[in-house]
Amino acid sequence: MQTPDDEQFEAYLKRFHPIAPESVPTLSVGHSSRRSPPLGIWLAAVAATLVIGAVILHIRNDRVAVSNTVTDAAPVERHAPSDPLTIRSANAWLAKAPSFKAAVDELAFRSQTSPLPQGKQSAVTVLSKEKIRL
Amino acid sequence: MPAENTPPSGGVFLSIRQESSPETDRSIDADCPNIENRPVGRTDRNADEIEALYRQHGAALLLFASAMSGDRARDQDAVHQVFLKAIENGSVSQAINKKAYLFACVRNAVLNDAKVQHRNMPLDVDSAWFSPPDRDYAGEQNLRRAIGELPDDQREVIVLHVWGELTFSEIADLLGVTSNTAASRYRYALAKLRGSMLAKENSCADSR
User: Fold this and answer.
1) Mean of the pLDDT values across residues B139-161?
2) Looking at the 3D structure of chain B, how many domains does it have?
3) How many CB atoms are closer than 10 A to CB B104?
4) Does the beta-carbon distance from A13 to B143 stay under 8 Å?
5) Mean pLDDT within B100-108
6) Closest by Cβ to B84, choosing from A6, A19, A26
7) Is residue B7 part of a domain?
8) What whole-number distance in Å separates Cα of residue B168 and Cα of residue B64?
9) Which of A16, A20, A24 sits opposite B132 (nearest CB)?
10) Are residues B150 and B189 in contact, defined by beta-carbon separation less than 8 angstroms?
11) Is pTM beyond 0.90 here?
């Protein structure tokens, strides 16, 4: 049977709170590191991977389309002017050509699209027939 | 530490580790009382529960260990080991009285220590055990010294009851004694503690 003095002294003792121990390493660090990520995090990671893959694929498709567009556009642009070549048309042709060499080659070996007037022959045709003695 | 031959008053656990000779082979795995032999294993819920118990009772458990051995660093290790094992095997979740179960585990862990088994010297009370109220550092030192001067069995009971807040029935189960024995030891301890602390305060007052 406790006396009032005992209860009073007990209350005095309880004013002294025991000092807490240091944190258990496993409880504070290892504990969380040992946990496997929850399902939600896994799903989010998979979704993010899919999204990134789709974006990369989309970018690649765009680049292919652009390159195809450029490629497709080049042949149109590479048709040499069929009108008699002037400085103005030559400059415009050079500006559109992919390279100087391509521009010159196209000009030199362009096909004859416009028919020659009647009674006229091209010099290349004539010379090719003649036997030239050197 | 004198062993009581009287049977325990009731069953908090299914089986209770009894004190044995120092030659008995003990391992840290066998510190906690055996409960139903059902391995639970580690789960996140179990770890959360253990963490909560650590926050709630860790200070009192460390005080109890210190009151038994007096080596603060070793006592802290013993408490940590008990909780780490509790996380691994999940045995605490099966205990009827988790707090009393943890005190039993800590007691066994401290008793396992060879240094305690062979200790024949007074308790080392150099390290602080309490946060002094109103910065009463002298009071804290006085209390620590007075607790250290108590006999081992009385010291255990007073720490378990005052700061561990265990009932005499729970203390009896833990120590393997009757409730009356536990209560009797507590009364003697309280009286001795009060007398020792008052004597010290009076001697300090007289010396001024």
Assistant:
1) 94
2) 2
3) 24
4) yes
5) 94
6) A26
7) no
8) 16
9) A16
10) yes
11) no
